[in-house]
Amino acid sequence: MSGAEDLEAIFDRFSKQTNPIFKKRDVLRHTYVPDRLPHREEQYRTLAHVLAPVMANETPSNVFLHGKPGSGKTAVTKFVLNVLKRKAEKENINMMFSYVNCQLIDTSYRIFAHLAQDLGKSVPITGLPTDEVFNLFKQALEEKKTMLVVALDEIDLAVKKSPDIFYPLTRINSDLKHSKLSIIGITNDVHFKNKLDPRVKSSLTEQEIVFPPYTAPQLVDILVERAKEGFHEDVVDDAAIGLCAALAAQENGDARRALDLLRVAGELAEREGASRVTEEHVRKALEVIERNTVAEVLTTLPIQSKVILLAIYNLSKEKITDEITTGTLYEEYCNVCNDIGLEKLTQRRVGDLVNELDMLGMVTSRVVSKGRYGRTKIVSLAVHAEEIKNALEKDYRLGTLLNS
Asked: Please, are residues 287 and 387 in contact by the beta-carbon 8 Å criterion?
């Protein structure tokens, strides 16, 4: 059988399945916004009350949503804004909303350009001063004569890149005559508010809504509802749903994690031609997601961080010493930089990047005492060496430098 025929056989098997697993696969993705949000009634009602002045052509307060990842902040925001938009249209109230994912759109220029484009104003990707792009957005907003609600998801990432971004946004209403703007700030960083400029802090956090982590029983309720809509009847074992919920509850009650586990478990069952999604499929899904997460992090790392990982990988393979000190690591790092013509960072900066890799779970570092010789940091890989190798081999600059 040729390669093309082999692929056609796979596609045929899925298109002709007599007992398919999924009814609507996308329901199991965390980007899907359902008609009901179990265990977030208090949060979406509070947000609705904050935004309700729109219905009286008044400007709502800015509102700040914070909680751990996967606690429902984005889903609640989109859910409330969708209902508000439909209601405003019925009442002939001119209201618009713009959602900005600051993980993808993370600079002042790009955020202002995105907002302007949502209002129908064409802005070049680059080339203009940032204040000019802001003025184009402000002009577009004034021309629309509308109430604009801007949801800025993961705003901490935008502030990290552009610390002054929110000052003009929180002051814009004083310059507008025919339109108004309200901000919904969303963050996973519970300490983010304390890092804000005092000029911005009071106006951006006029109202606050806290999202506690989901408990395991709450996650079961969420998964049961999604499973009814996403899977065919009697396809998913109750034990599989319980295991997804339990595993996600261990990781800060992350509903996205629970949904990903259930969806991938279903995909594995589908691939096997199984008639049911079982606990075993969930356990296999956990392995797949862990592998994919590591690969995604590794492939998106900056080149300097990849070089540091390559140096640690090579040193661990050479086994010249059982312990990789920061001094030894820095020597190997410099060797790799010389090999690929990369500008070397200082040893202190390399230490900072090692700490960042530690936070990402790629390496572990610990300080040990050497007695009268002082203290030193010992570094080692926190993921399988094979995963590091597979990811770095895809980088044309580094693949040939890996020790086997």
From this structure: no
